[in-house]
Design a protein that fits this description.
The protein is of the alpha/beta class. The protein is built from 14 helices and 15 strands. The strands form three sheets. It has an eight-stranded mixed sheet, sandwiched between helices. A four-stranded antiparallel sheet has the order 11-12-13-14, with helices on one face. Strands 7-5-15 form a three-stranded mixed sheet. The N and C termini lie far apart (58 Å).
Length: 494
């Protein structure tokens, strides 16, 4: 294996809104470590997730394909094991790709090409497998009003998982350094998967105090022209968001800021360890998240929509000697483009038939040729408790200054992000924008058929019914799972 191939360190968080980062303009949150990474690398301003929900976004990041192209739409869908991933590609050219922490894959394949995995997920490997409980915070980790009601200073298991992820990642880098001392200079590939800042919105009391009284309530109200027949109106009703108070919102937002701070401290330990062992030379470091969090804007929380707070993610790339420091990029990119970039950087054969295009050329040169279009999709199968039994097909296209959101069977949305960056004025029914609306809708539906997806999801639901019954009866073992203890979760008393 050629020693001139880079080391690859990919740090992926869960549910980190791009705007809650110092290097993205937030002047309240303290993120010195990610800010340092940004100052030494390239920051991408317009990065979108393939799906604003965990499993399909993460599987798309592995395969470089949009959810509909890998038949993995929801959090109960398994990715087929015979689909090549970035980990497979790296392994094929001699890397031993390691994953420490979160993957969030469903099904028997809990490696998907990784040669080494540690810590694992807090959830079961199986649809219908052994559930976990957060004790007093149970239900607060899911999209329900409880995540806001039960928020504030305290402790929750996800932070404990991340501490272990950092601990094992540091040990891995110590191991690499020891190998270097013994003459093994083979490049390494390490993926670090964090849970934070995903809800429950519960943070270390001392760090919470740093933000108490500094975090304001959401600035954007519910759009007046939204209408009661929209998917979003139904979603608020389904999840109890119409019952939330401003006090709940401020407390949850404050905790979220503290969770981002907490995560940044963990990431700082990894960056410091790389520097301590002189492992920064020819090392490609990437930080991103699987999706964002709306944090109460427009009376919406979590992800599950195409507003930028939900669908846009941070992306910072550092590669000493290859990329310039302190640069920013406005091009519209997607996490599937990150997949393609990792494969290119590793000197691998391109993954066949992927949707992603390596963004390394524009990372190197802002004038390099690049398109201005990307997609995101969000589908539900009606099986998870928070879905209310609803099967939904929706997709977003972002093209230049325009964003069009298609909700099958519900009113759509068209936003002019140049003149309306807060996405508050829906132009779908505006006669002056009919041409651009029709153009984007035609393009969005060209290779994405909501009726066919609906048929496939409903057919797969019948299969999942058998898989769920099997898991509950057979009780198969989880191969990579972190033990969640109810007593580790608590809220500080007033």
């Amino acid at each position: 294996m050629s020693s001139d191939r880079p080391n690859i360190v990919f740090i992926l968080s869960d549910q980190h809104a791009a705007n809650v980062l110092g290097c993205y303009g937030d002047d309240i949150v303290q993120t010195p470590n990610l800010d340092r990474l940004a100052a030494e690398g390239v920051v991408f301003e317009n990065t979108y997730t393939p799906s604003p929900i965990c499993v399909p976004a993460r599987m798309s990041l592995l395969t470089g394909k949009y959810p509909y192209r890998q038949n993995c739409w929801t959090n109960s869908d398994a990715l087929n094991s015979d689909i090549p991933t970035t980990a497979h590609a790296l392994g094929a050219v001699g890397y031993l790709p390691a994953l420490i922490g979160r993957m969030h894959a469903i099904g028997p394949d809990q490696l998907h090409g990784y040669a080494r995995r540690e810590i694992g997920d807090h959830i079961t490997d199986w649809y219908g497998g052994f559930a976990y409980s957060l004790g007093v915070l149970d239900k607060a980790q899911r999209p329900f009003k409880e995540s806001l009601v039960y928020s504030g200073p305290g402790q929750m298991s996800y932070e404990l998982v991340d501490r272990e992820v950092t601990k094992n990642s540091l040990a891995y880098l110590d191991e690499i350094a020891e190998k270097r001392k013994n003459g093994d200079i083979a490049p390494f590939s390490l993926n670090v998967g964090y849970m934070l800042p995903h809800q429950p919105y519960v943070a270390d009391p001392e760090i919470y105090k740093l933000y108490e009284g500094k975090v304001s309530p959401p600035k954007l109200s519910r759009p007046e022209d939204e209408g009661g027949d929209t998917y979003l109106a139904w979603w608020r009703q389904q999840t109890g968001l119409n019952e939330i108070t401003e006090e709940d919102e401020i407390r949850a937002r404050t905790a979220y800021y503290a969770l981002v701070d907490t995560m940044d401290r963990e990431i700082g330990k990894i960056l410091d360890k790389l520097e301590e062992h002189n492992l920064l030379e020819n090392t490609l470091i990437i930080y991103s998240s699987d999706h964002g969090d709306q944090l109460g804007e427009r009376d919406l929380w979590w992800k599950q929509t195409f507003y930028d707070g939900s669908a846009k993610v941070p992306l910072i790339i550092k590669w000493a000697g290859e990329l310039k420091s302190g640069e920013r990029r406005d091009q519209i990119v997607n996490l599937v483009d990150v997949s393609a970039a990792i494969v290119e950087a590793g000197g691998c054969e391109p993954l066949p038939g992927i949707d992603g295009k390596s963004l390394l050329p524009i990372a190197r040169d802002n004038e390099a040729k690049w398109g201005d279009t990307t997609y995101s999709e969000y589908c539900t199968d009606g099986l998870l408790a928070w879905s209310g039994g609803r099967v939904l097909q929706s997709r977003m296209i972002r093209q230049g200054q325009w964003k069009f959101n298609y909700y099958h069977g519900c009113p759509s949305q068209l936003f002019d992000l140049k003149n309306d960056p807060d996405e508050m004025t829906n132009l779908t029914d505006d006669a002056g924008h009919r041409e651009i609306k029709n153009k984007l809708e035609d393009q969005l539906l060209l290779d994405w058929n909501p009726e066919a997806i609906d048929e496939d999801i409903l057919a797969r639901n019948k299969e999942k019914a058998i898989l769920k019954a099997w898991a509950q009866s057979v009780k198969p073992a989880d191969t990579f799972r972190w033990e969640t203890k109810m007593e580790d979760n608590w809220l500080a008393s007033d």
